[in-house]
Amino acid sequence: EPEVTQTPSHQVTQMGQEVILRCVPISNHLYFYWYRQILGQKVEFLVSFYNNEISEKSEIFDDQFSVERPDGSNFTLKIRSTKLEDSAMYFCASSNYRDSNSPLHFGNGTRLTVT
Amino acid sequence: GENVEQHPSTLSVQEGDSAVIKCTYSDSASNYFPWYKQELGKRPQLIIDIRSNVGEKKDQRIAVTLNKTAKHFSLHITETQPEDSAVYFCAADSNYQLIWGAGTKLIIKP
């Protein structure tokens, strides 16, 4: 069964540094998402992406965040200047459709630790 | 903003007994309600979902019920087994986003 893959599995960075989290969605999916989960807390929506542009974004997704699909397979999340509170598990997901007809497929996540 | 409330936060049941987790949502336009199971350090995995045109859905030992009028939906696990131990999240769609509950840690006692 095809899977969403994410790299790296764990990223440690210093406060103020830029990080790029990478995802390869399922190849025939059209909608891509980033979610965040702070340790022990709920999963939170960050952003959705379709047709090379952001479809929706949450309040968490401020100017420090950006997403890109640099080629036909990768989908990246960049945090420009990391803060301690950015430490979390970041999950990429993809789906066939924008609405509820297609469930989300999650990657294994990248654990980001900001020191 | 839209909100999903989930109860209880922790649920401990004897192996073989049933477990019920309840969620309420605020957006009356929500029409898709998935349930995810997350084991420690792993990704959320979809276990069952229900759409607003259905009141109940069952898949082996797992069932989900939906009351759109009351904006409630529940997960029922029967004949619980040790491998059911995990954190379970409910979610509801709202403005093309999934709004998640806070999670329920399910502990199965041998």
Can you describe what's shown?
By secondary structure, chain A is mainly beta. In chain A, 0% of the residues lie in helices and 50% in strands. Chain A contains no helices and eleven strands. In chain A, the strands form two sheets. In chain A, strands 2, 4, 5, 6, 9, 10 and 11 form a seven-stranded mixed beta sheet that branches. In chain A, strands 1-3-8-7 form a four-stranded antiparallel beta sheet, with no helix packed on it. Chain A is globular, with a radius of gyration of 13 Å. With 110 residues, chain B is an all-beta fold. Chain B has strands at 4-7, 10-14, 19-25, 32-38, 45-51, 56-59, 62-67, 72-77, 86-94, 97-100, 104-109. In chain B, the strands form two sheets. In chain B, strands 2, 4, 5, 9, 10 and 11 form a six-stranded mixed beta sheet that branches. In chain B, a hairpin with a 4-residue loop joins strand 7 (62-67) and strand 8. The interface between A and B is medium-sized, with 20 and 24 residues.
What is this structure's SSE topology?
The complex is a heterodimer of chains A (115) and B (110).
Chain A: E1 5-7, E2 10-13, E3 19-24, E4 31-37, E5 43-50, E6 53-57, E7 65-68, E8 75-79, E9 88-95, E10 105-106, E11 110-114
Parallel strand pairs in A: 2-11
Antiparallel strand pairs in A: 1-3, 3-8, 4-5, 4-9, 5-6, 7-8, 9-10, 9-11
Chain B: E1 4-7, E2 10-14, E3 19-25, E4 32-38, E5 45-51, E6 56-59, E7 62-67, E8 72-77, E9 86-94, E10 97-100, E11 104-109
Parallel strand pairs in B: 2-11
Antiparallel strand pairs in B: 1-3, 3-8, 4-5, 4-9, 6-7, 7-8, 9-10, 9-11
Write a short abstract of this structure.
Chain A has 115 residues and is mainly β.
Mean pLDDT of chain A: 92
Rg of chain A, Å, rounded:
13 Å
Question: What is the count of β-strands of chain A?
Answer: 11
Q: Would you report the number of β strands of chain B?
A: 11
Give the chain pair forming the largest contact, with residue counts: A-B, 20 and 24 residues
**What structural class do the secondary elements of chain A suggest?**
mainly beta
The low-confidence parts of chain A are none
| Mean pLDDT value of chain B | 94
The ordered H/E elements of chain A are EEEEEEEEEEE
Shape of chain A: globular
Task: Kindly name the structural category of chain B.
Answer: mainly beta
Gap between N and C termini of chain A, in Å?
A: 37 Å
Q: Helicity range of the residues of chain A?
A: under 10%
Helical amount of chain B: under 10%
The gross shape of chain B turns out to be: globular
Number of helices of chain B: 0
Measured between the Cα atoms of the first and last residue of chain B, the distance is 41 Å
Q: Please compute the radius of gyration of chain B using only Cα atoms.
A: 13 Å
Order of helices and strands of chain B: EEEEEEEEEEE
Instruction: Indicate the multimeric state.
Output: heterodimer
Largest sheet of chain B: 6 strands, mixed
